[in-house]
Every structure is written in C-alpha cells, then in structure tokens.
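Field log, afternoon session.

UNIT: design team B
ACTIVITY: writing a sequence onto a fixed backbone
BACKBONE:
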C-alpha cells in the first residue's frame, strides 16, 4: 500500500509600503514587523532608504519594505529617494499604498497613476482614522475608490494598532506559494552599521529645526564589539561651515545632547553598553553629488 502525505505549502512574498511623506508608513512598518526597524518622526522625509523588515513563521515569510515619501525631487538625493519608492512598484507581490485622513488624494498624481496601473494586489490604507468622523471617513473612502478602483481599502490607525491585525491577515491570504527568500532568523536586510547611522540621524531630526536635519548625513566609521560593549565612531556630515557650528552648538552642548540620546537608543537597540564617539565634518553639496550619494548608499539599483 502506498501512503501519501499532504505537504503544506510555504508562503513568501514582498509587501512594499509606499505613499507620500508623513502619512505613517514607518510607524506602520514597525507595527507589522513587531520591531523598530524604521526611524519615525513627525518630520517629512525621515525615511531616505528602502528598508526591509522580515516577519517569519514556520509556514510563511513576509518581506516588508518601507520606502521614502513620494516627493517631486529638487536635488539628487531626492531623486534617489524617489527611485527607491518607484522601484517598490515593480517587485511587490502586494503593494500597500498609505494615505491619511487629511491628505489631498490627488497629491503626486503622477505616482498615483503608476500605482493604478500595476497588476499586483493593492491595499489602500487610510491611516490616522482616529482624527476623523465616520461621515468624513466615508467621503474619503469614496474619493479614493474613484482614484484607485481596483484597490482594497482599509481604514487603520497604525499608531494605535487599529486595523493592523486585519491587514496582516489579508496580507497572509494574498501571499504567493514560495520558499523563503531569506534565512528564517533574519529580521532585516540592513547591517548593524546602517541602524547606527539611522538612530543618530533620528536624534538630529528631533533636536534641530528647519534645514539642518535635511542637510545632514551620518556615516558609521567604526563598529567594534566585544562581550561587554560596542565601541562606535560616527561622522556627521553637513554642507556648510555654519551648519557645522549649529550641529556642535555653543561649547559643544548640542552635539553632546544628540550623542547622549543616540547612545541611549543604541543601547536599547543592541541590548548592550555603547561607547559612542561623534565627529562633525563639512562635505559641501553632498546632496547633489552623485559620487557622494553612492558612497552613502543612495544607489537604488
């Protein structure tokens, strides 16, 4: 007698998160992954790279991608950021388009038209619904349905975890049968040094105003780990001497505060004592220099 066993298929796929700035993409990513993968602040253009967060179960692997907010670029850095977002349209098994209750639906219509043309499943997420009434939400849903008629629409509040479980279950249903793309114990595609630079940059975004955070890039020059602690050296790059003075602050007060807050966050992230050394250098017009941008990892290809 021949005995046959049913083999349970494994599901795996890429779920890419796109949308305009400040709609809550990074907050949503962190909620879905269950870890703080993406930095999230109240300022636009916080996310500059395409960042993967991986959710694993024995029978499934979901590879989420957080992307920069869609903007019309004014310099090469923003061109690279837009390229990251557009690349997410081409390799998604499921696309999550995030908006919120206050955003004008036809903002960045050119990108929205590209979303409307893709053949993969699209879930339109209306975030921050705690900031609207039922009547307002109904009108918003109707407007978005006219713009993306083939998309599923799901109201959520990523910050309050409302609707995220429903979303995750729907994603699981849409995933294709596939072996895993990454090792089952892998959480992200980014190395430790990347998260060092992101955490330092997050503190700069929170502590400085106006143009300063957007003129800054951070490089991790050294990451040396032993059993007891991690010794990290980072360089903060700015475009102007005047910006360097602002970053450092009077008698070094500003940079000391940033370094202290970054060290605390890094200790929480790596669950280890951190010794952090911080330097500030001028790299004139790095945001418009293609060679410099490539060195900082802004090559979408």
């Amino acid at each position: 007698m021949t005995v046959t066993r049913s083999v349970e298929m494994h599901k795996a796929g890429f779920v890419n998160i796109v949308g305009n700035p400040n709609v809550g993409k990074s907050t949503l990513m962190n909620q879905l992954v269950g870890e703080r993968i993406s930095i999230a602040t109240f300022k636009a253009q916080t996310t500059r790279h395409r960042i993967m967060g991986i959710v694993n179960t024995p029978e499934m692997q979901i590879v989420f991608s957080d992307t920069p907010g869609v903007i019309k670029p004014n310099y090469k850095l923003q061109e690279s950021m837009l390229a990251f977002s557009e690349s997410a349209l081409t390799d998604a098994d499921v696309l999550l388009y995030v908006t919120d209750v206050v955003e004008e639906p036809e903002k960045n219509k050119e990108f929205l038209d590209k979303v409307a043309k893709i053949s993969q499943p699209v879930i339109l997420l209306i975030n921050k619904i705690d900031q609207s009434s039922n009547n307002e939400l109904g009108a918003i849903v109707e407007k978005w349905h006219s713009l993306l008629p083939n998309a599923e629409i799901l109201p959520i509040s990523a910050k309050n975890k409302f609707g995220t479980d429903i979303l995750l279950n729907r994603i699981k249903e849409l995933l294709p049968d596939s072996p895993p793309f990454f090792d089952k114990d892998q959480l992200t595609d980014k190395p430790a040094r990347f998260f060092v630079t992101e955490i330092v940059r997050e503190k700069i975004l929170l502590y400085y105003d106006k143009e300063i955070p957007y003129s800054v890039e951070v490089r991790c020059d050294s990451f040396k780990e032993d059993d007891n602690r991690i010794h990290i050296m980072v360089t903060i790059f700015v475009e102007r001497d005047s910006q360097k003075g602002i970053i450092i602050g009077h008698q070094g007060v500003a940079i000391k505060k940033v370094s202290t807050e970054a060290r605390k966050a890094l200790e929480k992230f790596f669950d280890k004592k951190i010794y952090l050394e911080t330097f500030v250098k001028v790299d004139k017009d790095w945001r418009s220099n293609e060679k410099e941008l490539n060195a900082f990892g802004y090559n979408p290809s």
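LOG NOTE: The CA atoms of residues 101 and 132 lie 7 Å apart.
NEXT ACTIVITY: expression trials, pending approval
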